[in-house]
Here is the input.
Amino acid sequence: MSPSLDTKVSGSSKDEGAGVSPQNKGSWSSFLKVRTHINKLRTPKHGSSPSLQSIASFNGDLSSMTAPPFILGTLSLTEFSAYWAQHPSVFVAPAAEEDPAKRALLVLKWFLSTLKPSYSTRNDKYGSEKKPLNPFLGELFLGKWEDEAGTTELVSEQVSHHPPVTAYCIQNAKHGVKLEGYNGQKASFSRTIHIKQIGHALLTLTSRANETYLITLPNIHIEGLIYGKPFVELNGCTYISSSSGYTAKIDYAGKGWVSGKKNSFTATLYPQGKEKEVLYSVEGQWPESFTIREGSGKHGAVIDTYNARTQPITPLTVPPLAQQDAWEANKAWDKVITAITKGDMDTTNAEKSKLENGQRELRRKEMSEGREWERRFFRRGDKAEEWWEKLAQGCAGERIESEKTGGVWRFDEGKAKEARRPFYDGLMPC
Here is the structure.
Protein backbone atom coordinates (compact mmCIF):
# COMPACT_ATOMS: atom_id res chain seq x y z
CA MET A 1 0.00 0.00 0.00
CA SER A 2 1.29 3.43 -0.90
CA PRO A 3 2.09 5.71 2.05
CA SER A 4 -0.27 8.66 2.07
CA LEU A 5 0.41 12.10 3.41
CA ASP A 6 -1.85 11.21 6.31
CA THR A 7 1.19 9.41 7.67
CA LYS A 8 3.77 11.91 6.53
CA VAL A 9 1.99 14.97 7.86
CA SER A 10 1.94 13.54 11.34
CA GLY A 11 5.75 13.46 11.32
CA SER A 12 8.11 16.19 12.38
CA SER A 13 7.21 19.73 11.34
CA LYS A 14 10.80 20.22 10.20
CA ASP A 15 9.93 18.11 7.13
CA GLU A 16 7.50 20.76 5.85
CA GLY A 17 8.93 22.36 2.72
CA ALA A 18 12.17 20.37 2.98
CA GLY A 19 12.37 20.25 -0.82
CA VAL A 20 11.68 23.97 -1.31
CA SER A 21 14.33 26.64 -1.67
CA PRO A 22 14.67 28.96 1.38
CA GLN A 23 13.16 31.96 -0.44
CA ASN A 24 10.02 29.96 -1.31
CA LYS A 25 9.39 28.18 2.01
CA GLY A 26 7.10 30.90 3.33
CA SER A 27 4.76 30.79 0.33
CA TRP A 28 4.75 26.98 0.35
CA SER A 29 3.84 26.84 4.01
CA SER A 30 1.02 29.30 3.40
CA PHE A 31 -0.18 27.21 0.47
CA LEU A 32 -0.35 24.08 2.64
CA LYS A 33 -2.36 25.92 5.26
CA VAL A 34 -4.60 27.44 2.58
CA ARG A 35 -5.72 30.38 4.71
CA THR A 36 -7.78 32.30 2.18
CA HIS A 37 -7.48 30.55 -1.16
CA ILE A 38 -10.24 27.99 -0.73
CA ASN A 39 -13.70 29.04 0.34
CA LYS A 40 -14.89 25.66 1.51
CA LEU A 41 -12.82 25.40 4.69
CA ARG A 42 -14.27 23.88 7.79
CA THR A 43 -14.19 26.37 10.65
CA PRO A 44 -11.33 25.36 12.97
CA LYS A 45 -12.27 24.64 16.54
CA HIS A 46 -11.18 26.80 19.46
CA GLY A 47 -10.12 29.67 17.20
CA SER A 48 -7.05 27.87 15.88
CA SER A 49 -5.60 28.75 12.48
CA PRO A 50 -6.69 26.70 9.45
CA SER A 51 -4.35 23.78 8.85
CA LEU A 52 -3.93 21.00 6.33
CA GLN A 53 -6.56 19.00 8.20
CA SER A 54 -9.14 21.77 7.75
CA ILE A 55 -9.35 21.44 3.94
CA ALA A 56 -10.54 17.84 4.01
CA SER A 57 -14.01 18.97 2.92
CA PHE A 58 -12.81 20.64 -0.30
CA ASN A 59 -14.05 19.19 -3.57
CA GLY A 60 -13.65 20.87 -6.92
CA ASP A 61 -11.41 21.46 -9.89
CA LEU A 62 -7.78 22.45 -9.52
CA SER A 63 -8.35 25.84 -11.14
CA SER A 64 -9.92 27.06 -7.90
CA MET A 65 -6.61 26.71 -6.09
CA THR A 66 -4.17 29.61 -5.95
CA ALA A 67 -0.70 28.07 -6.04
CA PRO A 68 2.56 29.78 -5.02
CA PRO A 69 4.42 31.25 -8.02
CA PHE A 70 7.24 28.71 -8.11
CA ILE A 71 4.83 25.82 -8.71
CA LEU A 72 2.93 27.42 -11.61
CA GLY A 73 3.45 25.64 -14.92
CA THR A 74 3.62 27.07 -18.44
CA LEU A 75 1.54 24.38 -20.15
CA SER A 76 -2.21 24.54 -20.63
CA LEU A 77 -4.23 21.39 -19.99
CA THR A 78 -5.22 21.37 -23.68
CA GLU A 79 -1.56 20.59 -24.44
CA PHE A 80 -1.61 17.48 -22.24
CA SER A 81 -3.56 15.65 -24.99
CA ALA A 82 -0.28 15.39 -26.92
CA TYR A 83 1.09 12.95 -24.34
CA TRP A 84 -1.02 10.18 -25.92
CA ALA A 85 1.16 10.00 -29.04
CA GLN A 86 4.73 11.09 -28.35
CA HIS A 87 5.79 7.71 -29.74
CA PRO A 88 3.86 7.48 -33.05
CA SER A 89 5.42 4.16 -34.09
CA VAL A 90 4.14 2.55 -30.86
CA PHE A 91 0.76 4.25 -31.35
CA VAL A 92 0.22 2.77 -34.83
CA ALA A 93 1.85 -0.65 -34.25
CA PRO A 94 -1.39 -2.52 -33.46
CA ALA A 95 -2.75 -1.84 -36.95
CA ALA A 96 -0.10 -4.04 -38.58
CA GLU A 97 -0.68 -7.10 -36.35
CA GLU A 98 -2.86 -9.88 -37.82
CA ASP A 99 -3.60 -11.77 -34.59
CA PRO A 100 -6.38 -10.09 -32.53
CA ALA A 101 -4.94 -11.11 -29.15
CA LYS A 102 -1.53 -9.74 -30.08
CA ARG A 103 -3.19 -6.56 -31.40
CA ALA A 104 -4.82 -6.12 -28.00
CA LEU A 105 -1.41 -6.65 -26.39
CA LEU A 106 0.14 -3.97 -28.60
CA VAL A 107 -2.65 -1.58 -27.62
CA LEU A 108 -1.85 -2.31 -23.97
CA LYS A 109 1.87 -1.71 -24.61
CA TRP A 110 1.08 1.62 -26.30
CA PHE A 111 -1.16 2.71 -23.43
CA LEU A 112 1.51 1.87 -20.87
CA SER A 113 4.03 3.85 -22.93
CA THR A 114 1.84 6.97 -22.54
CA LEU A 115 1.95 6.96 -18.73
CA LYS A 116 5.43 8.44 -18.35
CA PRO A 117 4.75 11.36 -20.73
CA SER A 118 1.33 11.98 -19.20
CA TYR A 119 2.24 11.83 -15.52
CA SER A 120 6.00 12.22 -15.12
CA THR A 121 7.22 14.64 -17.80
CA ARG A 122 6.84 17.83 -15.71
CA ASN A 123 8.60 16.21 -12.76
CA ASP A 124 11.51 15.13 -14.95
CA LYS A 125 11.84 18.58 -16.54
CA TYR A 126 11.23 20.87 -13.57
CA GLY A 127 12.02 18.68 -10.56
CA SER A 128 8.41 18.59 -9.35
CA GLU A 129 4.85 18.55 -10.66
CA LYS A 130 3.51 21.93 -11.80
CA LYS A 131 0.01 23.39 -11.72
CA PRO A 132 -1.12 23.72 -15.36
CA LEU A 133 -2.83 26.71 -16.92
CA ASN A 134 -6.60 26.37 -16.77
CA PRO A 135 -7.95 26.42 -20.35
CA PHE A 136 -10.74 28.76 -21.39
CA LEU A 137 -13.80 27.62 -23.33
CA GLY A 138 -12.95 27.28 -27.01
CA GLU A 139 -9.19 27.07 -26.47
CA LEU A 140 -7.48 24.97 -29.15
CA PHE A 141 -4.18 23.11 -29.41
CA LEU A 142 -3.31 21.75 -32.86
CA GLY A 143 -0.20 20.00 -34.08
CA LYS A 144 1.28 17.00 -35.83
CA TRP A 145 4.05 14.43 -35.54
CA GLU A 146 6.00 13.45 -38.65
CA ASP A 147 8.34 10.45 -38.64
CA GLU A 148 8.63 6.93 -40.04
CA ALA A 149 5.02 6.28 -38.98
CA GLY A 150 3.86 9.00 -41.36
CA THR A 151 1.86 12.02 -40.26
CA THR A 152 -0.07 11.82 -37.00
CA GLU A 153 -2.40 14.77 -36.36
CA LEU A 154 -3.65 16.19 -33.07
CA VAL A 155 -6.72 18.29 -32.32
CA SER A 156 -7.38 19.30 -28.71
CA GLU A 157 -10.23 21.61 -27.68
CA GLN A 158 -11.59 22.89 -24.38
CA VAL A 159 -15.25 21.96 -24.83
CA SER A 160 -16.45 23.00 -21.38
CA HIS A 161 -15.29 25.45 -18.73
CA HIS A 162 -17.79 24.71 -15.96
CA PRO A 163 -16.99 21.88 -15.46
CA PRO A 164 -13.54 22.00 -17.13
CA VAL A 165 -13.37 19.36 -19.88
CA THR A 166 -10.82 18.83 -22.66
CA ALA A 167 -11.65 16.75 -25.74
CA TYR A 168 -9.08 15.45 -28.21
CA CYS A 169 -8.61 13.47 -31.39
CA ILE A 170 -5.36 11.97 -32.72
CA GLN A 171 -5.32 10.33 -36.14
CA ASN A 172 -2.84 8.59 -38.41
CA ALA A 173 -4.50 8.11 -41.80
CA LYS A 174 -1.62 6.08 -43.24
CA HIS A 175 -2.09 3.27 -40.71
CA GLY A 176 -5.80 3.74 -40.04
CA VAL A 177 -5.50 4.54 -36.33
CA LYS A 178 -7.70 7.03 -34.51
CA LEU A 179 -7.83 7.99 -30.83
CA GLU A 180 -10.49 10.27 -29.42
CA GLY A 181 -11.62 11.03 -25.92
CA TYR A 182 -12.35 13.61 -23.28
CA ASN A 183 -11.65 14.08 -19.62
CA GLY A 184 -12.38 16.32 -16.70
CA GLN A 185 -10.84 16.25 -13.25
CA LYS A 186 -12.41 16.33 -9.81
CA ALA A 187 -10.01 17.16 -6.99
CA SER A 188 -10.44 16.52 -3.29
CA PHE A 189 -8.22 16.81 -0.24
CA SER A 190 -7.39 14.30 2.44
CA ARG A 191 -4.07 15.75 3.60
CA THR A 192 -2.92 15.40 0.00
CA ILE A 193 -4.51 16.10 -3.38
CA HIS A 194 -6.61 13.30 -4.86
CA ILE A 195 -7.74 13.67 -8.46
CA LYS A 196 -10.45 11.58 -10.08
CA GLN A 197 -10.28 11.66 -13.86
CA ILE A 198 -13.73 11.59 -15.43
CA GLY A 199 -14.15 10.52 -19.04
CA HIS A 200 -12.56 7.93 -21.31
CA ALA A 201 -10.61 7.39 -24.53
CA LEU A 202 -11.53 5.34 -27.60
CA LEU A 203 -8.91 3.84 -29.89
CA THR A 204 -10.24 2.72 -33.28
CA LEU A 205 -8.33 0.72 -35.87
CA THR A 206 -10.14 1.78 -39.02
CA SER A 207 -7.88 -0.53 -41.02
CA ARG A 208 -9.21 -3.47 -38.96
CA ALA A 209 -12.93 -3.10 -39.61
CA ASN A 210 -13.17 -0.33 -37.00
CA GLU A 211 -11.98 -2.55 -34.17
CA THR A 212 -12.45 -0.37 -31.07
CA TYR A 213 -10.85 -0.20 -27.64
CA LEU A 214 -12.44 1.57 -24.66
CA ILE A 215 -9.77 2.96 -22.33
CA THR A 216 -10.53 4.11 -18.79
CA LEU A 217 -8.44 6.72 -17.01
CA PRO A 218 -6.39 6.24 -13.81
CA ASN A 219 -7.01 8.09 -10.58
CA ILE A 220 -4.20 10.29 -9.31
CA HIS A 221 -2.87 11.47 -6.01
CA ILE A 222 -0.02 13.87 -5.39
CA GLU A 223 2.78 12.60 -3.19
CA GLY A 224 5.58 14.72 -1.70
CA LEU A 225 3.27 17.66 -1.06
CA ILE A 226 4.44 18.30 2.50
CA TYR A 227 8.07 18.41 1.33
CA GLY A 228 7.42 20.88 -1.48
CA LYS A 229 8.45 18.33 -4.15
CA PRO A 230 5.10 17.10 -5.45
CA PHE A 231 4.95 14.19 -7.88
CA VAL A 232 2.15 12.13 -9.39
CA GLU A 233 1.30 8.65 -8.21
CA LEU A 234 -1.40 6.53 -9.86
CA ASN A 235 -3.73 4.31 -7.88
CA GLY A 236 -6.57 1.86 -8.33
CA CYS A 237 -7.01 0.09 -11.65
CA THR A 238 -7.97 0.88 -15.23
CA TYR A 239 -9.20 -1.23 -18.14
CA ILE A 240 -8.90 -1.53 -21.89
CA SER A 241 -11.87 -3.38 -23.39
CA SER A 242 -11.86 -4.31 -27.07
CA SER A 243 -14.61 -5.11 -29.56
CA SER A 244 -12.47 -8.11 -30.56
CA GLY A 245 -13.23 -9.73 -27.21
CA TYR A 246 -10.18 -9.04 -25.05
CA THR A 247 -9.74 -7.09 -21.83
CA ALA A 248 -6.63 -5.64 -20.26
CA LYS A 249 -6.60 -4.75 -16.56
CA ILE A 250 -3.90 -2.48 -15.14
CA ASP A 251 -3.36 -2.29 -11.37
CA TYR A 252 -1.32 0.64 -10.02
CA ALA A 253 0.62 0.62 -6.75
CA GLY A 254 2.87 3.20 -5.12
CA LYS A 255 5.90 2.65 -2.96
CA GLY A 256 5.17 0.82 0.26
CA TRP A 257 6.05 2.25 3.67
CA VAL A 258 8.68 -0.43 4.29
CA SER A 259 9.42 -1.82 0.84
CA GLY A 260 8.43 -1.62 -2.81
CA LYS A 261 9.03 0.76 -5.68
CA LYS A 262 7.07 3.89 -6.49
CA ASN A 263 5.06 4.14 -9.72
CA SER A 264 4.72 0.36 -9.94
CA PHE A 265 2.05 -1.52 -11.85
CA THR A 266 0.98 -4.96 -13.02
CA ALA A 267 -1.26 -5.71 -15.98
CA THR A 268 -2.94 -8.75 -17.46
CA LEU A 269 -4.65 -9.43 -20.79
CA TYR A 270 -7.39 -12.04 -20.99
CA PRO A 271 -10.50 -12.96 -22.99
CA GLN A 272 -13.42 -10.78 -21.90
CA GLY A 273 -15.14 -12.22 -18.83
CA LYS A 274 -12.35 -14.76 -18.20
CA GLU A 275 -9.96 -12.87 -15.93
CA LYS A 276 -8.24 -16.04 -14.68
CA GLU A 277 -7.32 -17.15 -18.22
CA VAL A 278 -4.37 -14.79 -18.56
CA LEU A 279 -2.79 -14.69 -22.00
CA TYR A 280 -0.14 -12.07 -21.27
CA SER A 281 1.09 -10.22 -18.20
CA VAL A 282 3.13 -7.05 -17.75
CA GLU A 283 5.04 -5.73 -14.75
CA GLY A 284 7.27 -2.76 -14.06
CA GLN A 285 7.42 0.93 -13.21
CA TRP A 286 5.60 3.15 -15.68
CA PRO A 287 8.19 6.00 -15.67
CA GLU A 288 11.06 3.51 -16.04
CA SER A 289 10.57 0.18 -17.81
CA PHE A 290 8.36 -2.86 -17.98
CA THR A 291 8.49 -6.50 -19.09
CA ILE A 292 5.84 -8.41 -21.07
CA ARG A 293 5.50 -12.17 -20.51
CA GLU A 294 3.34 -14.99 -21.77
CA GLY A 295 0.77 -16.20 -19.27
CA SER A 296 0.55 -15.00 -15.68
CA GLY A 297 3.23 -14.53 -13.06
CA LYS A 298 6.98 -14.02 -13.31
CA HIS A 299 7.79 -17.42 -14.78
CA GLY A 300 6.32 -16.97 -18.24
CA ALA A 301 8.56 -16.48 -21.25
CA VAL A 302 9.61 -12.87 -21.82
CA ILE A 303 8.31 -11.73 -25.21
CA ASP A 304 9.04 -8.00 -25.05
CA THR A 305 10.48 -5.22 -22.90
CA TYR A 306 10.03 -1.47 -22.96
CA ASN A 307 12.31 1.22 -21.56
CA ALA A 308 10.45 4.48 -21.05
CA ARG A 309 13.68 6.35 -20.35
CA THR A 310 15.35 5.52 -23.65
CA GLN A 311 12.38 5.32 -26.05
CA PRO A 312 12.85 8.10 -28.63
CA ILE A 313 10.26 10.89 -28.57
CA THR A 314 9.04 12.43 -31.80
CA PRO A 315 8.63 16.17 -31.26
CA LEU A 316 5.21 17.65 -31.91
CA THR A 317 5.21 20.35 -34.57
CA VAL A 318 2.92 23.33 -34.02
CA PRO A 319 2.62 26.43 -36.24
CA PRO A 320 4.79 29.43 -35.34
CA LEU A 321 3.03 31.94 -33.07
CA ALA A 322 2.64 34.39 -35.95
CA GLN A 323 0.59 31.79 -37.86
CA GLN A 324 -1.56 30.68 -34.94
CA ASP A 325 -5.09 31.81 -34.32
CA ALA A 326 -5.79 33.87 -31.20
CA TRP A 327 -7.69 30.87 -29.77
CA GLU A 328 -4.72 28.50 -29.96
CA ALA A 329 -3.13 27.80 -26.60
CA ASN A 330 0.44 28.93 -27.24
CA LYS A 331 -0.63 32.26 -28.68
CA ALA A 332 -3.47 32.90 -26.23
CA TRP A 333 -1.23 32.27 -23.20
CA ASP A 334 1.98 33.74 -24.64
CA LYS A 335 2.15 36.80 -22.37
CA VAL A 336 1.24 34.75 -19.31
CA ILE A 337 3.88 32.13 -20.11
CA THR A 338 6.53 34.80 -20.63
CA ALA A 339 5.66 36.41 -17.29
CA ILE A 340 5.71 33.07 -15.41
CA THR A 341 9.09 32.24 -16.94
CA LYS A 342 10.46 35.58 -15.72
CA GLY A 343 8.89 35.13 -12.28
CA ASP A 344 6.82 38.28 -12.84
CA MET A 345 3.65 37.48 -10.91
CA ASP A 346 2.13 40.94 -11.29
CA THR A 347 2.12 40.63 -15.06
CA THR A 348 1.07 36.98 -14.82
CA ASN A 349 -2.01 37.88 -12.81
CA ALA A 350 -2.82 40.90 -14.99
CA GLU A 351 -2.67 38.92 -18.24
CA LYS A 352 -4.63 36.00 -16.78
CA SER A 353 -7.29 38.46 -15.63
CA LYS A 354 -7.60 39.86 -19.15
CA LEU A 355 -8.40 36.40 -20.49
CA GLU A 356 -10.77 35.55 -17.65
CA ASN A 357 -12.65 38.84 -17.92
CA GLY A 358 -12.88 38.53 -21.69
CA GLN A 359 -14.36 35.06 -21.31
CA ARG A 360 -16.89 36.26 -18.75
CA GLU A 361 -18.01 38.96 -21.16
CA LEU A 362 -18.49 36.40 -23.94
CA ARG A 363 -20.59 34.20 -21.64
CA ARG A 364 -22.77 37.19 -20.66
CA LYS A 365 -23.33 38.05 -24.30
CA GLU A 366 -24.26 34.46 -25.17
CA MET A 367 -26.71 34.35 -22.29
CA SER A 368 -28.35 37.61 -23.30
CA GLU A 369 -28.72 36.33 -26.87
CA GLY A 370 -30.04 32.93 -25.76
CA ARG A 371 -27.34 30.90 -27.49
CA GLU A 372 -24.57 28.47 -26.56
CA TRP A 373 -20.88 28.52 -27.46
CA GLU A 374 -20.26 26.58 -30.67
CA ARG A 375 -17.47 24.02 -30.53
CA ARG A 376 -15.19 23.89 -33.56
CA PHE A 377 -14.20 20.22 -33.69
CA PHE A 378 -16.45 18.29 -31.28
CA ARG A 379 -20.13 17.64 -30.70
CA ARG A 380 -21.98 16.86 -27.51
CA GLY A 381 -24.27 13.93 -26.82
CA ASP A 382 -26.43 13.25 -23.80
CA LYS A 383 -25.65 9.57 -23.35
CA ALA A 384 -23.27 6.86 -24.46
CA GLU A 385 -23.78 4.87 -27.62
CA GLU A 386 -25.03 1.27 -27.49
CA TRP A 387 -21.64 -0.09 -28.58
CA TRP A 388 -19.98 1.89 -25.77
CA GLU A 389 -22.19 0.20 -23.21
CA LYS A 390 -21.18 -3.18 -24.61
CA LEU A 391 -17.47 -2.39 -24.33
CA ALA A 392 -17.96 -1.02 -20.81
CA GLN A 393 -19.05 -4.47 -19.65
CA GLY A 394 -15.38 -5.41 -19.68
CA CYS A 395 -14.49 -2.46 -17.44
CA ALA A 396 -15.74 -3.08 -13.91
CA GLY A 397 -17.60 -0.07 -12.59
CA GLU A 398 -17.13 2.12 -15.67
CA ARG A 399 -20.06 4.34 -16.52
CA ILE A 400 -20.78 7.57 -18.29
CA GLU A 401 -20.95 10.55 -15.92
CA SER A 402 -22.19 13.09 -18.43
CA GLU A 403 -23.49 15.37 -15.69
CA LYS A 404 -19.88 15.85 -14.54
CA THR A 405 -18.44 16.54 -18.00
CA GLY A 406 -21.17 18.65 -19.57
CA GLY A 407 -22.10 15.77 -21.88
CA VAL A 408 -20.52 12.96 -23.89
CA TRP A 409 -18.02 14.47 -26.32
CA ARG A 410 -17.20 13.01 -29.75
CA PHE A 411 -15.00 14.23 -32.60
CA ASP A 412 -17.09 15.65 -35.46
CA GLU A 413 -15.51 14.86 -38.84
CA GLY A 414 -17.85 17.28 -40.60
CA LYS A 415 -16.89 20.19 -38.40
CA ALA A 416 -13.20 19.31 -38.71
CA LYS A 417 -13.33 19.43 -42.52
CA GLU A 418 -14.80 22.93 -42.42
CA ALA A 419 -12.54 24.33 -39.68
CA ARG A 420 -10.13 26.99 -40.92
CA ARG A 421 -8.08 29.77 -39.36
CA PRO A 422 -9.35 32.17 -38.17
CA PHE A 423 -11.56 29.69 -36.34
CA TYR A 424 -14.05 32.22 -34.96
CA ASP A 425 -14.25 34.79 -37.79
CA GLY A 426 -12.09 37.35 -36.05
CA LEU A 427 -13.67 36.93 -32.59
CA MET A 428 -11.01 37.26 -29.89
CA PRO A 429 -10.87 35.31 -26.60
CA CYS A 430 -10.40 38.58 -24.68
Notes: The radius of gyration is 22 Å.
